[in-house]
């Protein structure tokens, strides 16, 4: 079953998933503009639930087609793990309208909410980051060591609280 919504909350997902407890064999593909972070917890370890953001665009068609052809519901090469880690984003080029003045690199603090080998989901204050921007992402690994990752913004969404949620793809890592 494909479910499309502007906003996806855990309560909505749980209502749909409860149908499977009635011994009805169903799989769900949820497509939404905004997805609460806690929703992803509901799909961990499940092969019958998939969450997609509308901002994934043309990739959605391919993912849905694979699912309908029985090729599996996983849309990522490596699984994302939920995390809570402070991050610093820096545009990889000099920003003309930087909050700290013209000609100074743009810096933004944020929070990493999930992480995989190939990318991460980051929450930052609204604005100034666009799809296809190159950014340097600095975060602390599990040992407390700061890691810098050159990344590219792949998608952007807005949270209910006014934060900008961005998906980045990692390009190069340096410790």
Report the span from N to C terminus: 44 Å
Range of strand content: over 45%
> How many discrete structural domains?
2
- Given as residue ranges, the uncertain stretches (5+ residues, pLDDT < 50) are none
Oligomeric state of the chains present here = single chain
Q: SSE order in H/E notation?
A: EHEHEHEEEEEE
Structural class assignment: mainly beta
DSSP E strands, number: 9
- Share of residues in helices: 10-25%
Characterize the structure shown.
By secondary structure, the protein is mainly β. It has two domains: 2-68, no CATH class; 81-174, Thrombin, subunit H (Beta Barrel). It has three helices and nine strands; from the N terminus they run βαβαβαββββββ. It has helices spanning 10-17, 37-43, 59-68, and strands at residues 2-8, 28-35, 49-53, 81-91, 107-115, 119-125, 134-140, 146-158, 163-174. The protein has a six-stranded antiparallel barrel. It is elongated. The mean pLDDT is 75. Pfam families: PilZ.
Layout of strands and helices, then pairs:
Blueprint: E1 2-8, H1 10-17, E2 28-35, H2 37-43, E3 49-53, H3 59-68, E4 81-91, E5 107-115, E6 119-125, E7 134-140, E8 146-158, E9 163-174
Parallel strand pairs: 1-2, 2-3
Antiparallel strand pairs: 4-5, 4-7, 5-6, 6-9, 7-8, 8-9
Domain PilZ: 76-174
InterPro entries: PilZ_domain (IPR009875)
Protein name: PilZ domain-containing protein
Summarize the structure.
With 175 residues, this protein is mainly β.
Structural descriptors:
175 residues; mainly beta; Thrombin, subunit H; six-stranded antiparallel barrel; three-stranded parallel sheet; 3 helices; 9 strands
């Amino acid at each position: 079953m494909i479910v499309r919504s502007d906003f996806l909350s855990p309560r909505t997902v749980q209502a749909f998933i409860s149908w499977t407890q009635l011994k009805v064999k169903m799989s769900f593909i949820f497509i939404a503009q905004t997805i609460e972070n806690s929703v992803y917890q509901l799909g961990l370890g499940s092969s019958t639930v998939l969450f997609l953001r509308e901002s994934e665009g043309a990739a959605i068609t391919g993912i849905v087609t694979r699912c309908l052809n029985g090729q599996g519901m996983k849309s990522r090469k490596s699984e994302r793990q939920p995390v809570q880690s402070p991050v610093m984003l820096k545009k990889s080029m000099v920003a003309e309208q930087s909050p700290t003045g013209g000609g100074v690199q743009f810096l933004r603090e944020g929070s990493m909410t999930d992480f995989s080998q190939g990318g991460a989901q980051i929450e930052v204050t609204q604005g100034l980051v666009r799809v296809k921007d190159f950014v340097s992402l600095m975060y602390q690994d599990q040992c407390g060591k700061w890691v810098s990752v050159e990344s590219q913004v792949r998608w952007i969404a807005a949270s209910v609280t006014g934060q900008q949620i961005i998906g980045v793809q990692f390009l190069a890592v340096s410790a």
